[in-house]
Structure formats: structure tokens, C-alpha cells
Amino acid sequence: MSEINNTQNLLDTKQLKAFLHIKGDATLWRYLKEGRIPQPKFSVSRSKRLWSLDEVLSHLNKFSGGEK
Predict the structure, then answer these.
(1) pLDDT value, residue 64
(2) Which pLDDT does position 44 carry in this prediction?
(3) How far apart are CA 46 and CA 40, in angstroms?
(4) Backbone phi and psi for residue 49, each to the nearest 5 degrees, phi listed first
């Protein structure tokens, strides 16, 4: 399940880290705390969280100054 689920456009933690070119979990959680990435859309369990690709892209665009 290393490919993006195109039917629902959801990324799990591993896929999100690969998408953002992040290697460690600590970096991902720091980005969440700093607001650099949105909170997960779904929390299936403590270890299984899912993000909407559209929300991630929109948030990154805002965070990088793409939208005013």
C-alpha cells in the first residue's frame, strides 16, 4: 500500500512522509505541532492516521505563501 489511494485521495503516515520527503516520525509530528501540515482527517487508531491529499496540498500552498 505504498501508492496513493486515488479513489479516496487519502494518505497514511508512511505515504505522507514520502510525499513530503520526511524520513522520521519526529519531523512529521513537529510539522503538525508547528502547523506546517494539517491535522489528520481521520484517526483510525493511535498508529493509523489518514490525511486528505487535497487538504495537505491546500495547506502547503497557504503555508508557503501561495495564497493571500
Answers:
(1) 73
(2) 84
(3) 11
(4) -125, 150
